[in-house]
Write a structure and sequence with these properties.
The chain contains 44 helices and 11 strands. The strands form 2 sheets. Strands 6-4-9-10-1-3-7 form a 7-stranded mixed β-sheet. A 4-stranded mixed β-sheet has the order 2-11-8-5. The radius of gyration is 35 Å and the shape is globular.
Length: 1077
């Protein structure tokens, strides 16, 4: 915001060029200002503004612009008019709040009469061009100029002027007035009819009047009148240009009224007949597209419209007409798919295929791509409708769509190969077709085998014809489809053996071809790695393929294709090929020169090595070949790991190996956090992920240690294990919640990464459950946390309920038999945390089922045990400890995939909290008198948020909490005011507590009330800059003298009602309780 003197100096500049630039700059600022909501009291306080000051500034700047318009030459006047037209367009189309009228609201401009008076004087004394520009200004200011009787009369009188320029300008102004006043619109409608019908009015004036019809129809009655008059003018006119323009205007009117849509469709159909001119038919198609796409009402298109659209494609159409026709047909079929008889579907789909084949000959790539999109979506709709009647056995329509798309890809590929040179547009079209295939397979996952078979034929064709032009790029696209099909076999439980067989054949063909580059060979060799692990068979095949991948990765380094090598390393991480990933990243480190990239690659190498070590320790026999390959090829990753000294060594002791893995993960995390400690930093997600992973491994080490003690101790020492295992179980459940927090704290995270994070959370929940319940039944009287077991079961049930209902019911029954009916049912997970059937999830669920079954067996054995039966009691304890050990070992055998988001280095969304005393001039220093409440003005600022993400956020929330225990040392107050940033531990009690309370508040759950703390939850409405302002009050009247930190956590809701936690990029504000001076 700038002050009046600055605006005056800008607009009052004497030089013509500078004045023009100043007006444009002022207009840009006004556009931003007009879409912002009115200032809140918090904003007034924080920026030191006086209430009403913004209105005074509005008056000053508008009067200043009006003076510039009055006194300037025509060029200057035109610049002012263009500025206000741009502001009007911006206000209507760009505003996040459509009800917001900006500062052109009557009550915001007390001097609006003076503003109108100055422009009216200019109107009265000017020529036709100045009068026209003045009328346009009245239209831009319609919110307050519409109520002025003189201006209304002036606008009406100019409509019948003999000067066409004035007529057009007055029609624009009147159209703007109609948006606010139905009375004005009724009179305007009568005058419009006369203008359009008048033979004395020049053609351009009549045409402007026809276009003005579209501004009418804000009420139902007026819509009907305007539509009736418009259609009468259409039927009575012989000029095609008038008719086509009026068709568009009445179509816009009809799209706003549910009563007029069907009438307009019938009218437009009459203009589609062959006896009409080409322009009328093209306009009719355009208008049908307007009516069907813009309408806010449910409308079932008549069958005759669908028949007419099919018939339209019987002749050759221009690209524009083709665009409208296929969009109309798409809207019709998508709305009528349920009403089409099954017997008619095949005939209808055959017609669609013919139409799509025709559109494929269009020179417009947008038409071609939409036709493919149309074919894919309608084939899915038709297939599902047929499936409901035929028990899901008929897949002919969707398979026809896939066949058509693959054939189209083959045709386009051959065209590129025949030209023997790349073609960017063709390559983009091919990539779009591959995306459409993936979309089809997402919606029809059971078509994976058919799709792969077709693509295998395409690959064979590529092998015979490719000359190195485009083959490698297309092979990468095919690999993504193969990967999706393999994932779908796990996710939806479809038949996987056939898909794997086709994938194996494709891998052999691709990797045996010398035309494809080494990067393609690497990613194909890794495709079946995870699926082989899932089936727990054919480890030799998986090992051989990873060896081949290592050989090709080595060749990538030899030819110095470092970027492809890096991409191959990322692919290896995602597929869990840790030997390949460690090798590639280690080799890249030897050629890297950038310090920041060196830290990142070193961290990746350490992370890959830690996961490689877990995989090797879980099955050393199968993985020894891979380790020997690394040693034999003198992998650069091994010396780097060796720098770590003793922690890099592998021993036969499982506990020592796990502790080594924990230390390596810790080093990897510290490598990234050394110079990147802000939540908006590139590595913030990676640091949090590595910290959580290291913490889980650390707890596993402790559990192994405790179990070892229990196995060598006598029965009477069993009771001594309850307390440490209970503490470890509590830490594990906190880590599960920490993973949940990660899953909801990164708005741009992809769904696959979110699922992997949620799988980690599930594993922690399972480990927490078994760690607590392994000795629970034998030593339940020694329990120090009586409510812990209820929380553990409820948490685990909440995660499993939607994916494994049977195990969830067993857990609830277990809870009921342990402590009776639970106080409250488990909480449902948010949309971002819900699990899907992936390799990790299914593996953990299998472990969970075994664990629950054996816990129930232990419970039954305990019930049958007689008092003082030491032998059975000892056996129960041993069974519990063996169960704990077995679950841990099975968990270590689960090879977690790396979240794709882990390999993304973009800054993540974060927020910053600014706070200051209400009505205070102390700046950043916050203070309060003893016995008083603390009243704060708050600003929550989003950082590093993309415009599209910001537009999706509807509300911001922030919880502030302060305890007497948060008191700060006096010497650190000044330092604290600088808001130094530190990485928070996301398993920290305070972070989890605040996040949990904020979620409960947003979900309107019961609020926990603790009289020992003071806290407040504040809601913000974000503006276009991602800022929200509000106030809050904290009851600190009982706090003694001293300085205290206010801890906080923020979150937001998006337009889908999904809750997201926001990372904090500033520490909490510090306030001081001090005596008055």
């Amino acid at each position: 915001m700038y002050d009046d003197s600055e605006a005056s100096s800008l607009i009052g500049c004497s030089f013509k060029g500078k004045r023009t630039e100043a007006i444009k700059e002022t207009g840009a600022r006004l556009e931003w200002w007009s879409t912002d909501p009115e200032l809140s009291m918090a904003e007034h306080d924080m920026f030191g503004l006086i209430p009403g000051e913004d209105k005074l500034f509005t008056n000053a700047i508008l009067l200043r612009l009006a003076d510039t318009f009055v006194s300037g030459d025509k060029h200057t006047k035109l610049c002012v008019v263009k500025m206000f037209l741009s502001e009007l367009k911006h206000r209507k189309t760009k505003s996040s709040n459509r009800k917001n009228k900006g500062f052109f609201v009557k009550h915001n401009i007390p001097n609006h009469l003076e503003l109108l008076r100055r422009i009216k004087l200019c109107f009265n004394s000017g020529d036709k061009e100045v009068r026209a520009m003045s009328l346009v200004l009245f239209g831009c200011w319609s919110d307050f100029s519409k109520d002025n009787a003189e201006i209304r009369y002036l606008v009406f009188s100019c409509i019948v002027s003999c000067r066409v320029l004035e007529v057009k300008a007055s029609l624009f102004a009147a159209g703007c007035f109609c948006e606010f006043s139905d009375d004005f619109a009724c009179v305007f409608l009568e005058m419009l009819v006369k203008v359009v019908s008048s033979s004395d009015m020049p053609f351009s004036g009549r045409l402007a009047g026809v276009r003005a019809f579209a501004k009418l129809g804000r009420s139902s009655a007026l819509s009907s009148r305007a539509y009736k008059e418009g259609t009468n003018l259409i039927l009575g006119s012989v000029d095609d240009y008038i008719v086509t323009t009026m068709l568009i205007s009445v179509s816009i009117i009809a799209s706003r009224s549910a009563l007029l849509i069907s009438r307009q469709v019938d009218l437009l159909l009459t203009f589609l007949s062959e006896d009409k001119s080409l322009s009328l038919r093209a306009t009719s198609l355009r208008c049908l597209n307007i009516v069907l796409s813009r309408s806010r009402f449910r409308f079932s298109p008549p069958t005759k419209l669908m028949i007419a659209m099919f018939n339209t494609f019987n002749e050759e159409l221009q690209p524009v007409m083709q665009h409208d026709a296929i969009h109309i047909l798409y809207e019709i079929l998508m709305s009528k798919v349920l009403s089409i008889n099954n017997s008619e579907i095949n005939e209808c789909f055959t017609k669609i295929l013919t139409i799509v084949e025709t559109v494929m000959q269009s020179p417009s790539i947008s038409n071609r791509l939409f036709a493919i999109h149309f074919l894919a979506n309608i084939s899915v709709k038709f297939t599902r409708k047929i499936d409901m009647a035929h028990d899901g056995n008929d897949k002919t329509l969707a398979t026809q769509a896939i066949s058509f798309i693959v054939d189209r890809i083959t045709l386009l590929t051959n065209s590129v190969l025949n030209r023997n040179q790349p073609n960017l547009e063709t390559e983009q079209e091919i990539q779009s077709l591959f995306r459409t295939i993936k979309l089809l397979l997402h919606k029809c996952p059971n078509l994976g085998e058919f799709a792969l078979t077709k693509l295998h034929l395409f690959v064979k064709c590529l092998l015979h014809n490719d000359n190195g032009t485009i083959g490698s790029k297309l092979a990468v696209c095919v690999s993504k489809v193969v990967n999706l099909c393999l994932k779908n076999t796990v996710k939806y439980g479809t038949s996987s053996s056939e898909i794997r067989n086709v994938a194996r054949l494709m891998i052999e063909d691709v990797c045996g071809c010398g035309y494809f580059n080494h990067y393609v060979h690497v990613i194909y060799h890794l495709l079946l790695l995870k699926e082989t692990e899932e089936c727990n068979t054919d480890h030799v095949y998986a090992t051989e393929n990873e060896i081949f991948a290592l050989e090709k990765a080595k060749k990538l380094m030899e030819v110095k294709d470092y970027w492809s090598a890096y991409k191959a390393g990322k692919t290896a991480c995602v597929h869990g090929a840790w030997f390949t990933a460690a090798f590639i990243f280690g080799e890249l480190l030897t050629v890297l020169r950038s310090d920041s990239c060196h830290q990142w690659l070193t961290s990746l190498t350490l992370f890959a090595y830690s996961e490689m070590k877990i995989v090797y320790c879980s099955s050393p026999k199968e993985r020894s070949t891979l380790l020997n390959w690394l040693v034999g090829n003198r992998s650069s990753s091994l010396p780097i790991i060796g720098v770590l000294g003793e922690i890099s060594k592998t021993t036969d002791n499982e506990i020592e190996n796990l502790d080594v893995i924990r230390k390596i993960l810790q080093v990897s995390k510290e490598m990234l956090s050394a110079n990147d400690v802000t939540p908006s930093g590139r590595h913030y997600f990676q640091i949090q992920f590595l910290a959580l992973r290291a913490n889980v491994i650390e707890i596993a080490v402790h559990v192994f240690n405790e179990i070892s003690k229990g196995q060598i101790s006598h029965l009477q020492h069993g009771v001594s294990l309850v307390q440490p295992l209970t503490q470890l179980s509590t830490r594990l459940i906190k880590l599960a919640h920490g993973y949940d927090l990660v899953a909801t704290s990164f708005m741009n995270m992809d769904p696959t990464s979110t699922t992997i994070i949620s799988a980690h959370a599930l594993s922690c929940s399972v480990l927490a459950f078994i760690t607590r319940f392994s000795l629970f039944f034998q030593f339940e009287n020694v329990d120090l946390q009586s409510d812990l077991h209820a929380m553990l079961i409820n948490d685990l049930v909440g995660r499993l309920w939607c994916i494994d209902r049977e195990t969830s019911k067993e857990l609830l029954l277990l809870l009921k038999t342990c402590v009776g009916q639970p106080k409250s049912c488990f909480g449902q997970l948010s949309k971002t945390q819900r699990l899907e059937n992936t390799y990790e999830v299914t593996s953990i669920i299998k472990i969970c089922r075994i664990a629950v079954k054996r816990v129930v067996d232990i419970q039954n054995a305990e019930k049958r045990m007689h008092e003082n039966d030491d032998e059975i009691q000892s056996q129960i304890v041993n069974d519990g400890l063996e169960l704990q050990l077995d679950v841990l070992k099975k968990w270590l055998n689960v090879s977690f995939m790396t979240p794709t988001y882990f390999l993304s280095l973009r800054p993540c969304v974060s927020c910053q909290l600014f706070a200051m005393n209400r009505d205070s001039q102390n700046g950043a220093k916050i203070s309060v008198l003893p016995g008083h409440q603390l009243h704060l003005d708050l600003c929550l600022q989003l950082n590093d948020v993309l415009p599209e993400s910001r537009a999706r956020i509807t509300k911001l929330y922030c919880i502030l909490q302060c305890k007497i225990s948060y008191r700060q040392p006096s010497q650190s107050q000044d330092a604290k005011s600088q808001t130094k940033i530190k990485i928070h531990d996301w398993a920290d009690d305070t972070v989890l507590e605040l996040n949990d309370k904020l979620i409960k508040y947003v979900n309107k759950c019961e609020k926990d009330d603790d009289g020992q703390i003071t806290e407040s939850v504040v809601c913000f409405r974000p503006n276009e800059k991602g800022q929200g302002f509000s106030t809050c009050m904290l009851n600190v009247s009982m706090f003694p003298l001293g300085s205290y930190e206010i801890k906080w956590r923020a979150g937001c809701l998006d337009i889908d009602g999904r809750y997201w936690s926001l990372n904090s990029s500033s520490s909490g504000p510090v306030f001081t309780v001090q005596k008055p001076c």
